[in-house]
Amino acid sequence: MTEVLRRWLAAGGIRTATARDAVLAGVVAAASVALVLGIEQLAVSEAGSAFGAGPGAVVVTAPERAAVVAVLVAQSACLVLRRRDPVTCLALTVLGQVALLAVLPAYLSFQAPATLVAAYSVGAYAPRRRGLVAAAVAAVVQALLLFALGGGGLLGTSGAAYAAQASSALVNALLTYLGAALVGEYVATRRSLLAELRDRVRRAERERAALAAQAVLEERGRMARELHDVAAHHLSGIVVQAAAAERLVDRDPERAKESMRRIRSQGRETLDNLRLVVGLLRGPGDTEAAPQPTLADVPGLLADARAAGADVQDQTRGDPCALAPSTQLTVYRVLQEALSNARRHGTGRRVEVLLDYREPGLVLHVRNAAPAAERGPVPGPASHGIVGMTERATMVGGTLTAGPRPDGAWYVRLAVPRSPRAVHHATGGTVLPAAPEEPGVAPSPTTEERP
């Protein structure tokens, strides 16, 4: 209802709170004048009957009536201050009420509506304790001034009758002002609760939108890592095989055909993996049922690297332990990326792969020699491959270090924790007895990838 009134007033050009209060003051003034004139007519007829006057007897004179109307209009005009300074507004309306009782005939008693609106405004817009105190003080002041003036039906009484009527007037004033102030308090509290609820809803919507955006970014990052790992590994192998086939097509057609078959096989595998990732992007209904790689697929990964022409030596130290599927996928993808980098940047050079289970978890070491021109740290920002490997390691609680060593070799070290809930998989390769790791220079902490 309040919102409808505000829209109507806004349509009429009344948009500010002060302007709305001015309209309210005018409505209250008109209602007050109409009420007091109606009460006057009733009082005149009753007074005429009591004093034996005729029906047309005039008890209230025109100057008295004009004074009452002027006081009511001035009192209602004070309501313009009810939001900006509600306590002052209440004080002015109380003074107007006292003036009204002074100009009214002795047998008339009228509580102007402006005092009720002012008391309500004190409860609604002033601080809680201050508003209630102001309402109580206003009631007491009005009752005391009424006693002093002897108005409101108190004139001509004395003794016990006067005390009873004075007490009744005080109680009525307290009930009137405090009741209106408490109603204002209730409305203000309800308004505050509604505003707080709306604010909570808005905050919850913003938080939900932020969480959704964060989830989208994380999922996009995960998909980007999967696409990079799949494309970088298989396409780099295809490029190497294609270059070898081009060199052998005239000298050794059979070996060239074998390279082409390897290219076709890797191309199919790449398409299968890309279909899996695209299915995840489309939704659960479009996802193809393809298992994620585990440590059991590491021998096949090493075999593919050897078939592509890489000189790979792999070792396993310690007893293979149980690892979570997500951890196994991380180890597989990091090894895949490291082999792809070795194939791109160190073609024809030996790659050493070590899976070490002697640590609290699993430590993967990948090392391959680098050309002399590439020795030392490489300046520039970290590549997407190194960033993706680092993010994968962080997601499973592991750490990754990658960079060149002083002897010119490129080194990748991944350490991941154990998980007792994981399913055990053997990794293949040459299993060596547990022994201290060979001494060497610690890898550089840089995370730059070779160009």
From TrEMBL:
Alphabetically ordered keywords of this record: ATP-binding, Coiled coil, Kinase, Membrane, Nucleotide-binding, Phosphoprotein, Transferase, Transmembrane, Transmembrane helix, Two-component regulatory system
Domain annotation Signal transduction histidine kinase subgroup 3 dimerisation and phosphoacceptor: ranges: 219-285
Pfam families, per the entry: HisKA_3 (PF07730)
GO MF annotations, alphabetized: ATP binding; phosphorelay sensor kinase activity; protein dimerization activity
Region (Disordered): 421-451
EC number(s) reported in the record: 2.7.13.3
Source taxon at top rank: Bacteria
Record's catalysed reaction(s): ATP + protein L-histidine = ADP + protein N-phospho-L-histidine
Record's GO cellular component terms: membrane
Protein name (record): histidine kinase
Annotated source species: Cellulosimicrobium arenosum
Lineage: Bacteria, Bacillati, Actinomycetota, Actinomycetes, Micrococcales
